[in-house]
Structures are given as C-alpha cells and as structure tokens.
C-alpha cells in the first residue's frame, strides 16, 4: 500500500468516532457508569490515534528524505538526459550517454522499489512516472532499455 500524505486529516475523525463509540458503550453497558472506565476507554482511543499519527509522521519523514535524495540525483542527470532527448532519434549512443542512462535506469528502478514498498506518495510516483514516459518514449533510450532490462535487474520496474 502506497503512502498517502493526505491521510492526516482522518486522525481527528478516528479519534472522535472512537471516543463517541466508547461513550455510547459506557452508557449502554457500564453498570453504575464508573467514570474511570470512560476515561480509560477514551485514553485508549487517544493512544491508538496517536500511534497511527506518529507512524504517519515517521513515514512522512522517510518520504521527504527519499524525495529530496531522488530529486537531487535526478537534477544531476537532467541536463545530460535532455541533451539525449532532444538530440538525434537514431544512431548509437556514446559510452558516456549509456553510462548516464544506466544511472537514470537505476534511479527509476529505485523510485519504483520504494513506491512498491509503500514509502512514496501515489501522486508523486504518478508525476515521476509521467516524466519517465517522456524519456522512455525516445527511440535511442528505449532501445538501450529494451536490451538492458532483459536481465530483470531493475526490481520489476517497467516504464510502460
């Protein structure tokens, strides 16, 4: 399941619904209505909600670290990738271009790996994937990819 950064808005709802359920159960089932039981129930709901929210914050922090790292790596490749993209559509790639593209393929595969593991937000992955489609649509880049990916060394990543 992919990370959804927008899920944070649900934590107050979870707390309110959980608290309302505890209050309803307290009125319905608690003989004599001891307030300690009510407070314990609401405390348990608060603790559970905090656990979920804290986990979300930790995942968001990891996402940010990955996002910054992946974008920095892409920024280093971007100018040279665009040179290939806007260059000739046919012909052989130079050794430098091939090495650059292998670095890009590895970056794409790592992004895919972390997306599949659930650490990248859906919207971010879809945006990155649309950008990948631009490069993988170039015949010279696609040709190298088609030859290289036969070893299945890219964590199951396929740009299609």
Keywords:
single chain; 160 residues; mainly alpha; 74% helix
Describe the protein in words:
Helix content is 74%, strand content 0%. The protein has one domain (5-151). By secondary structure, the protein is an all-alpha fold. The model has no long low-confidence stretch (mean pLDDT 91). It starts with 9 loop residues before the first helix and ends in a 12-residue tail after the last helix. The longest helix has 51 residues, at 35-85. It has helices spanning 10-29, 35-85, 95-116, 122-136, 139-148. It is rod-shaped, with a radius of gyration of 24 Å.
Compile the SSE list and pairings:
Layout: H1 10-29, H2 35-85, H3 95-116, H4 122-136, H5 139-148
Helix pairs in contact: 1-2, 2-3, 3-4
Low-confidence parts lasting 5 or more residues at pLDDT below 50? none
Helix/strand-derived category reads: mainly alpha
User: Largest beta sheet, briefly?
Assistant: none
Number of DSSP strands?
0
Determine the strand fraction and express it as a percent band. under 5%
Distance between the termini: 20 Å
Mean pLDDT across all amino acids: 91
Structure annotation, total helices: 5
- Calculate Rg over CA atoms: 24 Å
H/E order of the elements? HHHHH
How many structural domains in the coordinates?
1
Helix content: over 70%
Query: Given the C-alpha coordinates, what overall shape results?
Result: rod-shaped
